[in-house]
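Objective 1b: paired records.
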Amino acid sequence: MSPSAGLLPILMPLPVLVPLLAAAGTLVFGRRPRIQRTIMLSALTGVVVICGLLLYLADRDGTTALQVGNWETPIGITLVVDRLSAAMLLVSSIVLIAVALYGSGQNIRDGDERQPTSIYRPTYLVLSGGVSAAFLAGDLFNLFVGFEILLAASFVLLTVGGTEERIRAGVSYVMVSMLASLIFLAGIGMTYAATGTLNLAQLAQRIGAVPEGTRTAIYAVLLVAFGIKAAVFPLSNWLPDSYPTAPAPVTAVFAGLLTKVGVYAIIRTHSLLFPGGEFDSILLVCGLLTMLVGILGAIAQSDIRRLLSFTLVSHIGYMIFGVGLASTAGLAGAVFYVAHHILVQTALFLVVGLIERQAGSTSLRRLGGLAATSPLLAVLFLIPALNLGGIPPFSGFIGKATLLQAGAQNGSVLAWTLVGGSVLTSLLTLYTVARVWSKAFWRPRAEAPEGHLSNAKTPSLIEDSTDVRYDERTHPGSMPLLMVGSTAALVVVGLALTVLAGPILRIADRAATDLRDPGVYVTAVLGAAPVEPGASR
């Protein structure tokens, strides 16, 4: 164990336990919304601090494992913290607290008259615990459990309010998620039958001794399951129809986090269990198609929420690009880009919620003149939009440049094709967000084809009421300070990723170096690094 062994066993379970215990507390105080809110925000703030400490310790001391209940591996539950999982935990916890503040500011409204906040808060905390459980899992079964916890919570959050549109989207989302879970469960069964274990460290030792055909089949099944969850083309069609119907904070946290859990699972299994295999080329092709199909879908949209949902799919392709390169530089670029995209995409969806509140619509056919009526809103949109488009010197440019450099270093025809596709996708992303800016913010609303149907109001910032009976009908067009403040804070964190790009890239590079050496993970979990005979590395 590392020098911090005395502290880490205490900290490692807390990102899961704190939200789940807080969820139980919010259920107890279901009729006391102020207490519910205090419990939720306190718990999520504590998780941010804990995850910051975990990243510091993981970067200082390296990969560390905890055997829950002191059971020997692989009998008990194994939690593992390395630079990758700690970074994912910290970024996700920042997003979760920002979205929770945003949701508290609007009381989970968005023009809908039925918003059961007493259900929303405990469910949101359960979602937080599930995300953390997935990042910390040291075996495939508990990775599956983490997925199922966050998916069960997401089913409730997606349909909060009970409108017909949300129920319809929720049914589609449930069916796709159940299919992915069944495929994942089948992959778990195949893995255990072939190796006799589900512990990732033991699998890294044993998977090379499995016949090549069986090993390929196992990876294919797992890759399909994770590809659905990550919305990788051609398994991404479900996402644009599911996410835009939910309330703004729910859509934001889904867009920022849920697909990235799938990306994390792809990174972990590919680097630890199936490095340098024949699937690298398949991942590169899927990454290219994900980029291009996603951004072409975004160009065709006239609703900002659907447009951003397609850009979400598109930019998953950049992360798969880095994984498929299977190099230290490629993985470092993928890790950095995951952190960048979580922050920027979440911020953009929060801004869209403010646009809908301000103008009564997210359709580009009805919007216009928002830069004049709400300059602050314009700035909050412009900064993450330019970041998403990859304009220098933002973190989006830095992440893409890192991936392009890794592709150029690879030198293969397919890698250079990905480099060209990445540049084209970035230019089309910039065109897409520029179109939103020119139509929603720059042109006069009177020039919009359906501008007369919009409900734009004079902007105003008001202090957020702590009373859940706060009703936007008494403050038409207003933007509560807590909503604006949490959105602005997330935009600032995204800018901090730019300012601190050097140190963060160095952490990403160290994380990628660890990922490229399975022995680091195996040693931390099992205490012995040797790979069994027949394993391919």
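Objective 1b, second protein:
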Amino acid sequence: MIQVKMKLMTAGTAVLLTACTPEPERADKAADVQTPSDHVLDTHSASTPDEAYITHLDLDLSVDMSGRTISGKASYDIVNLGRGRIVFDTRGLSILEVKDAHGKLLKHTLGDSTFLGRPLMVEIGPEVERLSIAYRTGAESDALQWLSPQQTGGKEHPFLFTQGQAILTRTWIPIQDSPGIRITYTAHVQAPSELMVVMSATNTTTRSANGEYNFRMEQRIPPYLIALAVGDIEYRNIGARTGVYAEPNLVDKAAKEFEDMERMVVAAEELYGPYRWERYDVIVLPPSFPFGGMENPMLTFATPTIIAGDGSLTALIAHELAHSWSGNLVTNATWDDFWLNEGFTVYFEKRICEKVYGKDYAEMLAVLGRQELTRTLHDLKEAGQDADTRLKLDLAGRNPDDGMTDVAYEKGYAFLTLLEAATGREKFDAFLRGYFETFAFKSMTTEKFMAYLKQELLDPADVTLDLDAWVYQTGLPANAPVVASRRFALVDTAIVRWSSGVPAKELATADWTAFEWMHFLRGLPAGITTQRMAELDKTFGFTASGNSEIAFTWFERCIANHYEHAYPALAEFLIHVGRRKFLTPLYTALASTENGMLVARTIYKQARPNYHSVSTRTIDEVLGWQKMTEPVTM
């Protein structure tokens, strides 16, 4: 029996998921039925599903690109448990009115403001099973990034995209914003007729003449996966179930880059069962998108930084596709359980890549991931945040973004590779397939997964794996699987040769992939002279690289070795790329010296308007930006 600690709470402090009445079963979605679950405390939502919870959402919205607002109505089917109210999460929204299904106004109040937002408390009688909220977004709707034409590829039309994970959907829709609550949704969206609208749902592939678009999501998803993009967008088909959306100047290049998407879907299904989301499409967003990719169902949102011209960075597509099982199909119940989304997805990503591109490719990915984990573990310990190196986190009172580190991804992956090694690949694959089938369209806690793991896979008498150390203790356990790459061993030889004085042009690099160049740059010794940095740059053209991962890794070396010849290109990179994975290490490295801090703040002043709020929140802290911009009081 799993025991979960219970706490008393008030609106604005937590969401409590209680044993729920199942939704009516749809004939074509027999497996998509909510079942009773153990009580789970979600400290990042004000909603109280033990009083009432939503099961379906209908959106009717108008997008004002010039005024930079979304307005309209959100209507909900609810399960009313007769306790007199329902509570929604909001942040930065203007609530205009709340009505029941018969048009009767319902009394509502907004609670106190915290970093989680303001709870919207609606009084409901026992007869209320549907209600609607008229609202509009405001300047504090941080999920929304509004881009001027100059911030897009075409330079002619504005662009809008949303980013909901982790707790930002509440900034553009009043919602019960917990990953433990799953809903279906439809949407009617009106936008300017010269623009196209897409969502994380069924999408058209052609532009509407009148700017009206209709969407449906029949599978139950957590609210953070509701996503919207509006812009000058075109579509290109890739395979039977796959395609890509992007701005006209990029769409053909993107389609070529992602030509293996259909093969990836087939490989994923062969591993862990049928794809349950109808289509798998990708939209390539403008460069300000803060993540590499976001696994919005049916339509992954992706950064253009993965388009290198040679398909070398499309492992990210395999990662986002894998989320269609781990994350979207079976979802972490709270953000403390984030590793259940990401650790599983990294493992699945590597398996897809191994099937499509071979073992060498997957091994290189694994080594690069371990390098990133080692760095993250060191940085968290140095910052006094060793507790965040656990898989099961405690993020109460903090923004859940704080837990979205390489620990969830790479320590989670290492744990699953340990389980595979201990039980055998065939047995472990059968376990994972059964896991996805058993818990499809449900939410999962760490405790529930551990119980299922012990019941379905592991011998109860086997204590050698030390599961507690992996999940509930800090750092990387001593029995972590060793990762190695045959191809990287050859790169290591080249690093030694160059470090001993061999000219760069004499190194055998002709057949190196992007991964090998990344490993080479990461492995360079400290204290490289300006002359030798210049030699590398002249020989291999790193400063002018069109591969974002290579450029990023090179710029890290440039900052560490004060190679200021590359700083103009570094500034251009930071101004035009909004991906937080790149921004945080580069700004942090610059900020480590007094002169570097001046350089960083100068660049950031120009770059900040191009970044999404997810990125500015992090970089503001790195550079002490709020203190720099606060008005002086006398």
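Residues 359-382 form the longest helix (24 residues). The chain has 18 helices and 22 strands.
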